[in-house]
Amino acid sequence: MNREFNLENLVRPNVHKMKPYSSARDEFKTEGEKMTFLDANENPFENGVNRYPDPQQLKLKQVLASQKRVSVSNILLGNGSDEVLDLIFRAFCRPQVDNVITLPPTYGMYKVLAELNEVEDRKVLLKNDFQPNVEKILAEVDDKTKLIFLCSPNNPTGNSFSEVSVEKILRNFNGLVVIDEAYIDFSADKSWLERLEEFPNLVITQTLSKAYGLAGIRLGICYASAEIISILNKIKPPYNVNELTQHKALERLSKPEEVKQEIVVLLEERKRLENDLSKMGFVKQIFGSDANFLLVRVEDAGKKYEQLIKAGVVVRNRSNQELCENTLRFTVGTPEENNQLIKILKQLEA
Ligand SMILES: *Cc1c(COP(=O)(O)O)cnc(C)c1O
User: Is residue 2 very low, low, confident or very high in pLDDT (cuts 50, 70, 90)?
Assistant: First the structure.
């Protein structure tokens, strides 16, 4: 496939024609002076959230831009990365016409969103070492392939994709390569964000749901070229990130040392869990992890899963996913929670 990367050809024609919806809060911005807002039919009595939130989340983007060394125009925020991923589908994939490529075993939302948007999901299984099969991926590409989803570190396998493989895909595919970096803060590998300017077809998603400890507020982040971001901006719901979320995210981002310290603890705990699990007879294989979970192959995963539930611990049984027969996925908890898990597993052994 030799067509040049051309964003205009990639975007859905209806989206290309659209102008962004202009909300009341878009049309008039204060420059510091005190204005009286009688434009948006809000209730004027102050309670902290009686006004619509900033539809462009400028303060939050400015903090992210400075922490991640990108520009505000390279950022789009969403109601979790799940919304960001859905916006990417809707901006680029024509229902019943286009296709995307995903690499199972991987995060389940890509498939759900493909189904929801009536877009063919071409699955190219990871290799046995859980690395992308680059030749097969590129062989699946045709002129209707709009997106390739790379989840790195990958959920549920925990490993990162090799830089060489990812770069080959970026260089040889003229659609968008979406790298889902939900777990990047737990990884020793560098984020692809550092190379954003090198690849016009690179889209990176991150989230405050994992390392930042804010799954409840729903904040997903998309980094891409200003051109890609402006397309996504055209179709996003105007107030998709609410005021409470923006407030809480700013508060957390202002305490990077706290986040870093929690990551240090979780990485130490991951190592300890790995070590304790490796001594158990029913544990057949522990897959190397760059994330805050461990994928573990055990004897009779279904039975172990039920026994853990009975003992009050919920883990994820990933056995029905390709290449993941008899595997459980353990999220790294607090030291106390991990002690509990280990204690129960030891009892199951006896
Ligand atoms: C948890 C997770 C997300 C997070 O999605 P949010 O909607 O931001 O909570 C995204 N991608 C992967 C691979 C995940 O495991």
Answer: very low
The answer to whether residue 1 scores a pLDDT higher than 50 is no
pTM: 0.96
- Across the range 210-230, mean pLDDT stands at 98
Pairing of strands 75-78, 220-223: antiparallel
Q: Tell whether 276 is covered by a domain.
A: yes
Taking the centre of ligand 1 as the mean of its atom positions, its distance from the CA of residue 283, in whole angstroms, is: 27
Ligand 1 atom nearest residue 208's Cα: 8
CA 81 to ligand 1 centroid distance, Å:
6
* Model pLDDT, residue 3: 59
- E strand intervals along 173-276: 176-180, 202-207, 220-223
The residue out of 254, 282, 301 marking a domain boundary is 254
CB 20 within 8 A of CB 234: yes
Q: Is residue 1 part of a domain?
A: no
Is 132 within the bounds of a domain?
Answer: yes
Nearest CA to ligand 1 atom 12: 182
Tell me what the pLDDT averaged over the chain comes to.
96
- Structure tokens, 4: 């040049």
Q: What CATH number corresponds to the domain at position 236?
A: 3.40.640.10
Distance 82 CA to ligand 1 centre (A): 7
Nearest-CA residue for ligand 1 atom 10 is 182
Output the CA 37–ligand 1 centroid distance in Å: 37
The residue segments making up the domain with residue 288 are 257-349
How confident is the model over 44-68, as pLDDT tens digits? 999 999 999 999 999 999 999 999 9
Beta carbons within 10 angstroms of residue 65's beta carbon: 17
Instruction: Indicate if 247 and 343 belong to the same structural domain.
Output: no
Residues 195 and 304 in one domain: no
Q: What percent of the chain has pLDDT above 70? A: 98
How deeply is 172 buried, as exposed, middle or buried, from its count of CB atoms within 10 A (0-12, 13-18, 19+)? middle
- Four-residue CA torsion sign, 80, 81, 87, 89: negative
Residues in contact with ligand 1 by the CB-under-6-Å rule are 80-82, 107, 151, 155, 180, 182, 207, 209-210, 215, 220
Atom of ligand 1 nearest to the CA of 107: 13
Domain tally, the chain: 2
